[in-house]
Amino acid sequence: MSNVKLSILTPVYNVKDELGKMIESVLAQTFTEFELILSDDGSTDGSGEISHIYAQKDSRVKALHFENGGVSEARNRAVAAAKGEYIGFVDSDDVIEKNMFERLMKTAY
Predict the structure, then answer these.
(1) Could you give the angle at the alpha carbon of 41 between the alpha carbons of 29 and 37, nearest 5°?
(2) Deepest in the core among 13, 26, 62, 64, taking most CB within 10 A?
(3) What's the predicted TM-score (pTM) here?
(4) What string of pLDDT tens digits covers the 109 residues of the chain?
């Protein structure tokens, strides 16, 4: 991925029922120069598999999988993997407006 301006980081832990909605809302962003890093913190409910499926379908999505270390550890691992000039966080149970990051990036530039 050559044009990553923004890394959107999401810690994931046992959120199978909400995760797809959050991912879809990020992938529908009007700002498209991003990567979405899903940092699975040892989920036992299938959330890790959902992350992996999205990563296979869309090159902007990266799925990281680790043993449970807590939300801070999941965020830190995602930060370490981030390639973007800017970093944004979206919780795994959030649904965001389609122009959220476009508006934020216009403000940043």
Answers:
(1) 25
(2) 26
(3) 0.94
(4) 457 899 999 999 999 999 999 999 999 999 999 999 999 999 999 999 999 999 999 999 999 999 988 999 999 999 999 999 999 999 999 999 999 999 999 998 7
